[in-house]
C-alpha cells in the first residue's frame, strides 16, 4: 500500500510529465531521420531473429550429439554457424549506421541550438555564466543527440528481443515463461521509485560541471591578472576546492547508483537461479532434453540481458531528459525583438545619416535599482556626441539601448531619418550601427580577416583605407605580412592601443551611419585619439558618432556632451561643460 502511495506521489510531483515533455522535444530532432531510424530498428530485430535461430540450431545440435535426430546434424551445424556470422555482420552495419546518424543529428542539434542561443534576448542570456553555456552547448547537446538516435530504437529492439526470446521459451516450457515475467513488475516498480532521486542527482552533477567549466574559462581568460596579482596559489586552491565539491557530488551519485544496482542485480540473480533450478528439475524428471536445457539457459541469459538493457535505459533516460531540460531552458528564453518590417523605410536614407533619440526613458536591470530615469538624448548626423559621467552610472547601458540589446522600461528609444521618420531601436536597427566596445574584441585570424568579418567582400584597398582612418595602418604597414599578419585570440601579439585601432578600423569598414565608441580610444595617446576622431568625421560624411569617455581631450571635438549621473542624463551647457572638463 505504502509503495503505491509513493508511486502516486512521484506521478503527482510532475517528474513523469516533465520527462515526457523533454522526451518529445528530443524526439522532434529525430523526426528528420525517420527512415534511417526505421532501418536501424529493422536491422536490430533481424539480428535478434538470427541469434534466436542460431540458439535453436545449437539446441538441435546438442540433441543430435546426445542421440536424438541424428540426420539433422550437418544442417543444424550450417544454420548455427551462418546465423552467428549473419548476426555479427548486422551488428557491424548497425554500429556504422549509428555513428553516421549520430554525427548528423549531433551537428543538426548543435547548429540549431547555437542559432537559437545567439538569437536570445541579450539581457536574459547575460544572466548565464559563459562556462555554464559552454557546458550545456557541449556536453548536453551531445547527450541529447545520442539519445535522439539511440533511445527509441534501443527500447524497441530490446522489447522485441525480450518478447521473441519469451515466445521461444514459452514454446518449450510455459512455466519458464512465468518465472521470467516475475522480473518485470519488480524491476519496473523499483525503477519508477528511483526516478526522481536520480533526476535530482543528475541535475546536481551537471550544475557542478557547469561551475567547473565557468571557473576554467574565467581562469584561462584572466591569466594576466592572475599572474600579475600573484594569485596562482589562490586559483590552485580554488581548483582543488572545486575538485573536492565535484568529487563529493559524484561520489554521492555513484553510491546511490551502486545501491540501486545491487538491489536490481539481486532480484535478477534470484530469478535466474529459480530459472536454473526449474530447468534442472525438468531435465531430471525427463521432461526436457539436454538441448532444451541448454536452450533455456542461453535464453535466460539473453532475457536477463535484454531486461538489463531495458532497465539501463532508465538512468540514461534521466541523464538525457535532464540535458534536454537544460537546453530547453536556454532556448526558451525570450528571443530578440526583430521588427524587420518597421525599418524597411529607413533603407533609402542610409547615405543621408540618422539621428538617435531617447525620449523620457526609464531603465533598470533589476527592479530594486533604477539605472536611468526620465532621461532624454539626441545625437544627429555629422555630430560627435559624448556621454560622460562617473563610472557605473549607465553610459554602457545607454550604448546597449542604442544597439537594441536593451529596451527602455518606459519612454522611447528611436532611430530617425532625415525626413523625421522614426523607428523604435531593436535588433533589426542594429545593422545601422558600428560598435567598438570596451576591452579587446579582436578575434583570432589575420588583420584582414578580422576586418572582413563586417564586410566579407571588402577589397584590400578598402581595408587599408579603414586602417588609415583609424591610424592603424602606420603600424600595420611595418609588419612583414601587412594586413595578412596573424593576430591571436583577443588581439594577442598587439598592444592594447594597436588592438583598439584595429577594432575601430573594423567599425569604420562596416560603414554604418552611426558609430558607437565605448571608451574605444582609452588606450591611445591624446594626439592619436584626436586624429582618429577627426578622420572619422572628415572622411566619412553624414556619420553620427557617439562616444563614451572619461577624457577631456575628446570633449573638445564634441558638438554636445551628455552627463550621466544618479540616474539622470543631462546635456551640459557651455559653462557646465567647461566646469566639468576642468574637474578632470
Ligand atoms: N548585466 C547587468 N545586469 C545587472 N546590472 C548591470 C548590468 N550591467 C550593468 N549593470 C549595472 O548598471 C549600472 C550602470 O552600468 P554601466 O556599465 O552602464 O556603467 P558605465 O557608466 O558604463 O560605467 P563605466 O564608466 O565604469 O564603464 C551599474 O550599477 C551596473 O552595476
UniProtKB/TrEMBL annotation:
What's its membrane topology?
Answer: Multi-pass membrane protein
PROSITE patterns the record matches: ABC_TM1F, ABC_TRANSPORTER_2
Cellular localization per UniProt: Membrane
Example GO molecular function term? ATP binding
Origin, by domain of life? Bacteria
Which InterPro entries does the record match to this protein?
A: AAA+_ATPase (IPR003593), ABC1_TM_dom (IPR011527), ABC_transporter-like_ATP-bd (IPR003439), Type_1_exporter (IPR039421)
Q: Which UniProt keywords apply?
A: ATP-binding, Membrane, Nucleotide-binding, Transmembrane, Transmembrane helix
Residue intervals of the ABC transporter domain = 356-584
Record keyword Glycosyltransferase present: no
Q: Does the keyword Lyase apply?
A: no
For this protein, the parts annotated as crossing the membrane are: 37-57, 77-99, 151-172, 178-195, 262-284
**For the ABC transmembrane type-1 domain, which residue ranges apply?**
38-319
Q: What is this protein called?
A: ABC transporter ATP-binding protein/permease
Naturally occurring in which organism (per UniProt): Intestinibacter bartlettii
Classification from the root reads: Bacteria, Bacillati, Bacillota, Clostridia, Peptostreptococcales
Amino acid at each position: 500500500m505504502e509503495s503505491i502511495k509513493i508511486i502516486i506521489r512521484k506521478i503527482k510531483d510532475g517528474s513523469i510529465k516533465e520527462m515526457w515533455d523533454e522526451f518529445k522535444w528530443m524526439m522532434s530532432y529525430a523526426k528528420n531521420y525517420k527512415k534511417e531510424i526505421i532501418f536501424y530498428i529493422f536491422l536490430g530485430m533481424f539480428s535478434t531473429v538470427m541469434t534466436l535461430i542460431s540458439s535453436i540450431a545449437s539446441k538441435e545440435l546438442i540433441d543430435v550429439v546426445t542421440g536424438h535426430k541424428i540426420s539433422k546434424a550437418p544442417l543444424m551445424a550450417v544454420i548455427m554457424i551462418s546465423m552467428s556470422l549473419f548476426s555479427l555482420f548486422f551488428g557491424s552495419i548497425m554500429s556504422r549506421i549509428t555513428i553516421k546518424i549520430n554525427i548528423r543529428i549531433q551537428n543538426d542539434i548543435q547548429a540549431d541550438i547555437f542559432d537559437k542561443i545567439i538569437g536570445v534576448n541579450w539581457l536574459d542570456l547575460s544572466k548565464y555564466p559563459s562556462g555554464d553555456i559552454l557546458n550545456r552547448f557541449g556536453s548536453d547537446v551531445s547527450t541529447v543527440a545520442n539519445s535522439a538516435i539511440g533511445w527509441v530504437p534501443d527500447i524497441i529492439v530490446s522489447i522485441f528481443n525480450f518478447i521473441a526470446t519469451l515466445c521461444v521459451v514459452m514454446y518449450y516450457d510455459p512455466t519458464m515463461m512465468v518465472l521470467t515475467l516475475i522480473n518485470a513488475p519488480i524491476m519496473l516498480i523499483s525503477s519508477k521509485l528511483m526516478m526522481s532521486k536520480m533526476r535530482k542527482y543528475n541535475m546536481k552533477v551537471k550544475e557542478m560541471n557547469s561551475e567547473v567549466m565557468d571557473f576554467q574559462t574565467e581562469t584561462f581568460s584572466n591569466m594576466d591578472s592572475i599572474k600579475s596579482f600573484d594569485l596562482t596559489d589562490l586559483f590552485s586552491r580554488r581548483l582543488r576546492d572545486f575538485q573536492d565539491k565535484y568529487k563529493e557530488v559524484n561520489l554521492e551519485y555513484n553510491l546511490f547508483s551502486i545501491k540501486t544496482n545491487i538491489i536490481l542485480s539481486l532480484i535478477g540473480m534470484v530469478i535466474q537461479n529459480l530459472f536454473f533450478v526449474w530447468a534442472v528439475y525438468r531435465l531430471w524428471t525427463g521432461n526436457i532434453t539436454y538441448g532444451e536445457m541448454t536452450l533455456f539457459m542461453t535464453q535466460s541469459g539473453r532475457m536477463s540481458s535484454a531486461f538489463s538493457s531495458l532497465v539501463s535505459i532508465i538512468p540514461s533516460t534521466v541523464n538525457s531528459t535532464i540535458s534536454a531540460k537544460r537546453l530547453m531552458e536556454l532556448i526558451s528564453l525570450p528571443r530578440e525583438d526583430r521588427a524587420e518590417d518597421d525599418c524597411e523605410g529607413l533603407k533609402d536614407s542610409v547615405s543621408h545619416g540618422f539621428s538617435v533619440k531617447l525620449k523620457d526613458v526609464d531603465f533598470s536591470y533589476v527592479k530594486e535599482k533604477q539605472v536611468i530615469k526620465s532621461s532624454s538624448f539626441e545625437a544627429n548626423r555629422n555630430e560627435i556626441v559624448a556621454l560622460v559621467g562617473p563610472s557605473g552610472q549607465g553610459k554602457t547601458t545607454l550604448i546597449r539601448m542604442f544597439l537594441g540589446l536593451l529596451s527602455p522600461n518606459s519612454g522611447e528609444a528611436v532611430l530617425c531619418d532625415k525626413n523625421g521618420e522614426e523607428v523604435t531601436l531593436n535588433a533589426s536597427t542594429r545593422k545601422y550601427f558600428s560598435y567598438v566596445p570596451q576591452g579587446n574584441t579582436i578575434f583570432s585570424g589575420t588583420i584582414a580577416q578580422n576586418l572582413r568579418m563586417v564586410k566579407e567582400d571588402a577589397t584590400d584597398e578598402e581595408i587599408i583605407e579603414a586602417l588609415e582612418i583609424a591610424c592603424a595602418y602606420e603600424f600595420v604597414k611595418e609588419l612583414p605580412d601587412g594586413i595578412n599578419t596573424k593576430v591571436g585570440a583577443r588581439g594577442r601579439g598587439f598592444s592594447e592601443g594597436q588592438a583598439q585601432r584595429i577594432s575601430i578600423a573594423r567599425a569604420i569598414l562596416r560603414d554604418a551611419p552611426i558609430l558607437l565608441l565605448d571608451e574605444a580610444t582609452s588606450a591611445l595617446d591624446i594626439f592619436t585619439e584626436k586624429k582618429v576622431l577627426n578622420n572619422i568625421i572628415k572622411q566619412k560624411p553624414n556619420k553620427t558618432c557617439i562616444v563614451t569617455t572619461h577624457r577631456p581631450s575628446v570633449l573638445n571635438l564634441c558638438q554636445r556632451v551628455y552627463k550621466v549621473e544618479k540616474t539622470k542624463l543631462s546635456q551640459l551647457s557651455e559653462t557646465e561643460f567647461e566646469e566639468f572638463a576642468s574637474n578632470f
